[in-house]
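This section describes the prediction task in plain terms. A model, or a person checking by hand, is given the sequence of a single protein chain and must write out its three-dimensional structure as a string of tokens. No templates, partner chains or ligands are provided. The sample shown here is typical of the held-out split.
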Amino acid sequence: MRERLFRVFADFASRKSLRDLVSALSLRELLPLAIAIFSLFAVLGTMTDVIGGARMPRAQVVATCVFSGTIALVYAFASLRRRSLWFAAAIALQLAWGPFSARVFTGMPPVSPAEVTARLRSDALSTLLLMAVSYACFLWFMNGTAARYLRARAEIELARQIHQVLVPAVSMTIGEFEFAGFSVPSGEVGGDLVDVVPLPRLPPSGGPDDWFGYVADVSGHGVSSGVVMGMFKSALRMRLLQRGPLAVLLADLNRVLFPLKSGSMFVTLSCVRWEAPNLEYAVAGHLPILRVRHGAREAEEITTPQIPIAMFEDYPFTSAALTCERGDLLALITDGLTEVFDARDRELGIERVKEILVASAARPLREIADEIVAAARAHGPQIDDQTLLLIRRR
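The expected answer:
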């Protein structure tokens, strides 16, 4: 187990992720690492005495040990936490140490020849003790704090991989409709969903090319939102094995999800379902669906004003019919694309997205999606998951 941990830690450090580890830990948690570094380089004091013939005054040996360990600590944490001022301070201290040491210790009597052997033995024992303390503290740090951090990182990496499986990019055609969509998380694990589900044919209703498409946004960020997102997708896909009004589907999802999440969490949803020849939609606490009619010069906002899913235990959700002629374009997006701010704190806004949709409505869906994301990235840094689904009737 210890050898495996050493290999993991070495690989972790080789990828320069040790900076992330040091930045994430408190000073108390970094104490074993600090002691290990200090003790390792403090041996320079005893080694300097040995090289000089073991004649340095005892006070000078101790002072050199303390100075060497302290300077090593300053360099280490300046490098790991990228503090240029710490580097400058360490260099200044090193330059000042020589003159200071010569002025303070020059007048002290050196070790007599009769005491050299005893001094060499003392230096050797001190060196062994400092190296043992350093090794023990490195083990303490790696088996304790670093091991916990690495396990947490491994769990986050696993969650990220699961997120990639649960939220793959969408690129497909079903009957008369073509789809393109993707989700870009703002962190390791996202809370947004984009999905298109071909619906099973259940006679006497339903056709062979029926489908359900949606984007969803779980409140919050991180692993907790990712867990709720996974539960929501599973529950939704299971519910789609049955037919029924879209409002009933949302009510069923609300009843299932409400007791399975913390009180402050909820899910906003924008969805469209095609059951030939009808197109039905519902928006629950989400941005409106944007529709660009074929040849039109403006984008419409279509919505059903209602609260998000799983906010209250019982709520009468509604849905409505939606027309989509050949050549029409529908866009379902999350607020991570609109709530992007520039250096002057100006929001990108939904109007900019509508302008892009109108100007590029005839282009391939993937190009439209890339242009929307590029506009958001050019406007300001990403602060939330960015997700969209484009649907066009061919």
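For orientation: Confidence is low (pLDDT under 50) at residues 1-16.
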